[in-house]
């Protein structure tokens, strides 16, 4: 139950769509979504495959709780070999697309090969067909969604697509569903573009069955009450979204600023959640219009924003006249603090561009920040940038470069390579704030020590959502730990990583874990699925997934030497705030982490570890 028991396999080279049974033995070992899709990828692809070649596969996968009334049961993941990193990639998205896929009767879609012309996949329950997308190629995500919906005459379809960034195979490209939700990181949109796959359109009316309806309702109602009563999930996130963190992290001295040259941003209060609520003098409106929710979500952390119409115009008319998906903490940080820009309207505009054309604002902003550092140091000049004066704090430069990137023009093509390749190209690798080629997010490892270890060891490259120790180190969830010390952080990171892998595989959102523990999530899975599901079993599944991902990366050519942070964070101490004088203590944490994982001194899972986890 809860699994549909079916996979849709789409061979783009042959133009075929075929149904096959889900491997239920794997489902019991890996649960679903992140874990199960990665198992399929590992078994079916060569780890050394070129991510942008037809030999790479791309999997859209749901979890057993996706499409159900489980709180936040609307998640799906895109699993592939990442174009940005060359490592295992799993990008998680919300909205309504995942639930629609499940309600159409599919646990996952496996895309293989490459179409010889642009196509899109149209799925109506059990019927699936590839349709010509020539008329959609070159269109933005928003235009694509509107055109497909209008041509089909069904406003209830759910669509995931790529914009020009994905078509141009920019390594920052993502896959956008529901116009402002995205499988955002690791270049999954470039993989989709390399296959000439423009979009996936879904309509599902079959429903999702669970093992025991009454037991499931009791378990999900209990979880909803916990979420409603919690200060973060019941108050903070609904009111301010993830932007509740901007001023908190800045005060903690852990807000990476101007390409991690500083750890506090003097303009943080101008771009945070509170600022989004302030009424503008120009038009009497606030940046924030409302919050919004994904499928079956009681938290409603998403933002809907509107831009001051006097702020950005094209030929005298506002470019974005309608409200759309607003800033979240990561995008406000990367577009703002990382580049030194404190103009809320400009950041909202840039966020709209990322949503419309389909590229990751975290990697984009971080890459622009590196370019700004190199511009100010003379490593790049107006000759390379096409006359864009890429100086920290320049709103004009930020807007110019995001438009160039969106169109795949000029220096925007260099930005689209990502920070690592950009900095390598201009012989300034130390300016790249990346791990395994992926730009790290909005937490400085000097001010939050556990996050440094989490970034360094993340299987998909630097990521906050693979082991969010900020919950403990800053917010005190489930218990408070000191963010400035390294003691105990190896165990904390491992625990967060394993638990998160299980949650990501369930079909629910990791944000629930601000309030819910695995003891609250396991009863939901047990009521939905056949089998014996406990919190301890979920921990074991999470550990199995983590080690499987690790082994894939090792087979792809990564080594323990890649579990490393940028030299700046290891050598240059924080200048201000609580972490003043500190660098990252990665060298103290990493050996203990390897030992706790059951890995060798150079980061390779031992035979005992693999045997214990049935790998």
Structure, described:
The two termini are 25 Å apart. The protein is globular. The protein has three domains: 6-203, Aldehyde ferredoxin oxidoreductase, N-terminal domain (Aldehyde Ferredoxin Oxidoreductase,  A, domain 1); 257-432, Aldehyde Ferredoxin Oxidoreductase Protein, subunit A, domain 2, CATH 1.10.569; 438-612, Aldehyde Ferredoxin Oxidoreductase Protein, subunit A, domain 3. Helices cover 40% and strands 13% of the residues. Helix 2 (33-44) packs parallel to helix 23 (535-556), helix 14 runs parallel beside helix 18 and helix 19 (449-457) crosses helix 21. The chain is an alpha+beta fold and 615 residues long.
- The CATH superfamily of the largest domain is known as Aldehyde ferredoxin oxidoreductase, N-terminal domain
User: How would you characterize the largest beta sheet?
Assistant: 6 strands, mixed
Number of domains: 3
Overall pLDDT: 96
Number of strands: 19
Strand order of the largest sheet: 2-1-6-3-4-5
CATH hierarchy class name of the largest domain: Alpha Beta
- The percent range for strand residues is 5-15%
Q: What overall geometry do the principal axes of the alpha carbons give?
A: globular
Whole-angstrom Rg: 22 Å
In terms of per-residue confidence, which ranges show pLDDT below 50 for 5 or more consecutive residues? none
